[in-house]
UniProtKB/TrEMBL annotation:
GO biological process: phosphorelay signal transduction system
Every Response regulatory domain range: 24-137
Parts forming coiled coils: none
Swiss-Prot/TrEMBL keywords: Phosphoprotein
Entry-linked SMART domains: REC
Protein species of origin: Mangrovicoccus algicola
Modification 4-aspartylphosphate occurs at: 73
The protein's name: Response regulator
Length: 239
């Protein structure tokens, strides 16, 4: 089924102040904090947003409607975002505009190799950069007519969403060590920490990622990550 608001010919026409008016954006993102930032930018830009937190959820969305734009995080709990990007770009009903997002700046190369037309590096906070990136990958007829001033506004997601992400990590760290998805945990925390501009948390996660890349465990870094997550949660509760 095609969502009628996603058909460019009948959708509401964008304006200079709301350049994404009439678009439906499917955001495939497991972080609540990163999703909240994109939600606020879509709201300010006139776009409607739907969110999937994993590949399985994204496929359920795609069974019922086709978005105007898809924004896909590269690190997801049940697989790689690059695989979904290939599906969206090369399937029988391709999505016309597909963007990738990641806290890893090196992710851009993987995203473009998979077929993404644009890349949003986390943290995504600049409203103007977000709008420009989305507009750049849209067909000309979907863009607002005339000149448009690029806004310098930024968005600040609710820190409760950051706490939700930390609580998710804390839950993952409670399972038996042999069953912990360390790669995913470290990648997830790295992206969340970048979005929240939390340097110590990001450094702890990236120490684990470097060790994993060498094929080695880093129990000290994992313990440090666990302690930082717990301290952030306790501080959020106190606030």
């Amino acid at each position: 089924m095609t969502d009628p608001v996603d058909t460019y010919l009948i959708r509401r026409q964008p304006t200079a102040s709301r350049p994404l008016l009439g678009l439906t954006i499917l955001l495939v993102e497991d972080s609540r904090f990163a999703s909240e930032a994109v939600r606020l930018m879509c709201l300010r830009s006139g776009a409607r947003i739907r969110r999937a937190d994993c590949l399985a959820s994204a496929h359920k969305h795609l069974c019922t409607y086709r978005p105007s734009v898809a924004i896909v995080d590269l690190g997801l709990p049940d697989g790689h975002g690059e695989d979904l990007i290939r599906e969206l770009r090369g399937g029988p009903r391709p999505v016309q505009a597909v963007l990738a997002t990641s806290g890893d700046p090196d992710g851009a190369e993987r995203a473009f190799a998979a077929g993404a037309q644009g890349f949003l590096e986390k943290p995504v906070r600049s409203l103007g950069d977000f709008q420009q990136t989305v507009l750049h990958v849209l067909p000309p007829e979907a863009r607002p007519l005339g000149l448009r001033a690029v806004t310098e506004d930024t968005v600040d997601p609710d820190m409760l969403a950051f706490r939700d992400d930390l609580a998710h990590v804390a839950e993952l760290l409670t399972v038996a060590e042999s069953e912990q998805p360390i790669d995913y945990i470290a990648q997830f925390v790295s992206g969340v920490a970048r979005s929240a501009q939390d340097g110590p948390l990001c450094a702890a996660a990236e120490a684990i990622l470097r060790a994993q890349a060498r094929g080695a465990a880093n129990p000290v870094a994992l313990s440090r990550l666990r302690n930082i997550v717990q301290s952030r949660l306790e501080r959020q509760i106190a606030i």
